[in-house]
Amino acid sequence: MKKYYIKDIASLENTSADFYGWVHEIRETKPIIFIILRDSTGKAQVTVKKSEHKQELLEKVSKLHHEDVIRIRGKVIRSQIAKLGYEIIPEDIEILAKAKHPLPIDVSGKIDAELPKILDARYISLRREEYFYTFKIQSVLVKNIRDFLYSRGFVEIFTPKIIRFATEGGAELFKVDYFGKDAYLAQSPQIYKEMCAGVFEKVFEIAQYYRAEKSRTNYHLAEFISFDVECAFYSYEDIMDLLEELLKYAINRTYEEAKEYFDKLGLNALDLNYKFERMSYDEAIDHLKDKGYKWGDDIPQLALSLLSEKIGQRFYFIKDWPSSLRPFYTKEHENDPRITRSFDLNFGFLEIASGGERVNKSEVLIEKLKRNNLNVENFDIFIKALDVASPPHAGFGLGISRLLMMLTAKKNIREAVLFPRDVDRLVP
Ligand code: AMO
């Protein structure tokens, strides 16, 4: 078992230890060969002074190539020149796996490559700093989201991803053959999280969403990570408060804990010390009417760009959407059923989350299903769940992949997913 990681190097001063990792770089001068050894925690310099080592070791060193996996037994000593302040003087080197050259991608990133090529070779392009640190950040971010919710008494749930009927509209569904019957991949955990909120009150799930999105944009995938919350006895205003507090906590904490990773990516922390604006849909349309938008129109990305010119690179909500633009499960305002108790959360021109209050009475749900031309029978279980008394509840779904994309300043969502799936990509 690997016992020491490169990050531990300072604690190993003047001792011999086994280091395992990848050959990141080899530089040779007449008297010295420098091997930069990389592991998941950092890089260390291995210094091989030709005059001080046996021929056997020098021969092994001469056979090393970029990305070979090796074990180096060596003594850690202080160094004036090595970046970490320490270097390793090798006593023994073992090649554990040879990398076949030419490599599909240059790991150092010095030789650029087009995104499709980078994604085709994900098994190695993830070793590049720009991706390696992106997914380390994702891990810290998700941990902080979880920490926040656990500290607030939420229950983490896992809902089925193979389902009988769609909740977010029929067009974007992946059909699967389920033992001879038609089934679909879940577009979201919507009705399941609602049923769970009717039991555990405050629930969340972090899981894949599946959308048969044919659009080839920089922001849409067929599979992505999403994060869902549902709370009984919360209004949509309460949920917006929760979402704002949660994002401020999780992002700020991630900046603290993953500062080193953000630094490696050359990214500065966003200042979140402001109240997220809550604009109504009416206000948004009012702002967009010169550009030809009218009440009842969706607010596509282009329109969000126009709004973000006013608001800046900030988070903001758009709330109270027309009923015709929201899914059937969204609750309408009692005094004006044309409008729903719903919201989107955007950052600049990018929609990050959407949510709202839900219908919790079966007769209302049945009426809305009919209005949306959906087959009431398909939602039988959901109707039964409302019939045993479902508390008023609200929640949201947040695209973690989009949030990560934004936090790591990626231009394309494919870069913020380990193994992206889109209309053209099923491999790797
Ligand atoms: P919605 O369909 O808006 O809401 O999805 C929630 C969030 O998921 C992200 N998202 C996407 N990310 C990448 N590729 C896509 N194709 C894609 N589609 C959506 C967005 C979006 O805001 N059930 C509701 C949520 C709720 O009301 O609780 C839902 O699915 O960031």
- Tell me about the largest β-sheet: 8 strands, mixed
Low-confidence segments: none
What distance separates the N and C termini?
29 Å
**CATH topology description of the largest domain:** BirA Bifunctional Protein, domain 2
Mean pLDDT, nearest integer? 96
Structural class: alpha+beta
Specify the number of helices: 12
Shape: elongated
CATH superfamily of the largest domain: Bira Bifunctional Protein, Domain 2
How many domains, as an integer? 2
Written as H for each helix and E for each strand, in order along the chain, the element string is EEEHEEHHHEEEEHEEHHEHHEEEHHEH
The bound ligands are:
aspartyl-adenosine-5'-monophosphate
Q: Note the beta-strand portion.
A: 25-35%
Provide a descriptive summary of the structure in words.
By secondary structure, the chain is of the alpha+beta class. The chain has 2 domains: 6-97, OB fold (Dihydrolipoamide Acetyltransferase, E2P) (Beta Barrel); 123-416, Bira Bifunctional Protein, Domain 2 (BirA Bifunctional Protein, domain 2, 2-Layer Sandwich), CATH 3.30.930. It has 12 helices and 16 strands. The protein has helices at 55-62, 115-120, 122-125, 129-151, 190-200, 236-257, 259-264, 281-288, 301-311, 362-371, 380-387, 400-407, and strands spanning 16-28, 32-39, 42-49, 69-78, 86-97, 155-156, 162-163, 175-178, 181-185, 202-210, 223-232, 277-280, 315-319, 342-347, 350-357, 393-399. An 8-stranded mixed β-sheet has the order 6-10-11-16-15-14-13-12. Helix 10 (362-371) runs antiparallel to helix 11 (380-387). The model has no long low-confidence stretch (mean pLDDT 96). It binds aspartyl-adenosine-5'-monophosphate.
